[in-house]
Design brief:
The protein has 360 residues and is α/β, with parallel strands linked by helices. Helices cover 42% and strands 14% of the residues. Residues 82-352 form the Amidohydrolase-related domain.
Length: 360
């Protein structure tokens, strides 16, 4: 009798579950709404007031963070900073600035004190963060000819200064894993390493291994839990969002952005990437890594359209260029609340930017 009663209860529960109304499937955000959605590109390098630049950003309701960087010879950090400040001054409602410092001077007397003095002035001049680049780990050597890693204790006074002032560090540490692998046309990084062979670490075995640089970065995060860090380019773990997730779980002070790595996301299953973006919706930001070489109204329109069709729609989207690497994938169709955080809210919160629509 008892068994029969249990069977009836199970059948009733199954019927109730089957008959209950199902939740409506999430609908993709309409294209017009996606275009109008406020956006902050947290990683851009525009240095000139090209006549197409601001209209292209306006068309997508986008603002941009202009990130200074030590890359190139001569490094010209002060000159680039002046260019970024000029563009920000011309369009204060459209652009923000991030400073950097020269790590190649690490052996100089009073290195950290001099960097702190420079950054104090940069912050007073409007810097929303401080960039560190892949030259730390891959290029910078000290007087003993050892490669300098991001967890080097000689940097620590700089991190303490920034943590105390709640200024985030935007950290491009290491390169994609592809830099340590043979160069093939099937890689989304083929064009870059073909044109920048000095960073193709596979051909330069003297450069520390990817895992060694990432391990130093992870030690740095662990030792500086009050320092906010935005690990640029998906934390140089672009090949697998599960690896990015491991770091986000381990380091509550860590955030990531997607600049120049959308093609790496497209190499992974869309459902896996979508689940990652939803789970870590408070920790991921949109970026492009576009600079003055990218500026044309048509070029920016095509690139922004690719980006936002991939993130916002359920359509099939071709990323890349038909003339070089390209891949057709299904869009992520992220829910509106996730899109809003990814597009601008996370950047506004982490970099202390004015909210969309507010005056600078």
């Amino acid at each position: 009798m008892r068994r029969g009663r249990l069977t009836l209860l199970r059948l009733a529960a199954a019927c109730a579950a089957a008959c209950a109304p199902r939740a409506a499937p999430e609908r993709a955000v309409p294209p017009a709404d996606v275009r109008a959605l406020p956006k902050v590109d947290v990683h851009a390098h525009y240095r000139t007031d090209h006549p197409d630049l601001v209209p292209a950003l306006q068309a997508w309701n986008a603002r941009a963070v202009l990130v200074n960087v030590t890359g190139g010879e001569p490094r010209e950090i002060a000159h680039k900073w002046a260019d970024f400040q000029a563009l920000r001054g011309a369009h204060p409602d459209r652009f923000f600035v991030v400073a950097t410092f020269d790590p190649f001077r690490i052996d100089e007397p009073d290195f950290a004190a001099n960097v702190v003095a420079q950054l104090r002035a940069d912050i007073a001049a409007g810097a929303k963060g401080v960039k560190v680049w892949k030259d730390i780990g891959m290029e910078v050597k000290d007087a003993s000819a050892r490669y300098v890693q991001i967890d080097d204790p000689r940097f620590q006074p700089i991190w303490d200064f920034l943590a105390a002032r709640r200024i985030p560090v935007m950290a491009h540490i290491a390169e994609p894993l592809a830099a340590w692998q043979p160069l093939t046309e099937s890689s989304p990084h083929f064009w870059y390493y073909s044109h920048n062979p000095q960073y193709h670490a596979y051909a330069h075995p003297e450069i520390p291994r990817h895992e060694a640089i990432i391990a130093a970065r992870d030690r740095w995060l662990a030792r500086n839990p009050t320092l906010t860090v935005v690990a640029m380019h998906l934390a140089s773990l672009e090949y697998d969002v599960d690896e990015v997730a491991r770091r986000l779980d381990a380091y509550p002070n860590l955030y990531v952005e997607t600049a120049a790595r959308i093609n790496d996301l497209a190499m992974q299953p869309s459902e896996k990437v979508r689940a990652f973006m939803i789970r870590y919706q408070d920790r991921v930001m949109w970026g492009t890594d576009f600079g003055e070489g990218s500026v044309s109204r048509a070029g920016l329109e095509t690139a922004f359209d690719q980006h936002w069709r991939y993130y916002a729609s359920a359509d099939t989207v071709t990323l890349g260029s038909r003339q070089s690497w390209h891949r057709t994938v299904r869009g992520l169709a992220l829910p509106r609340v996730v899109l809003e955080k990814f597009a601008h809210r996370n950047a506004e919160r982490v970099l202390a930017l004015p909210a969309a629509g507010a005056r600078p």
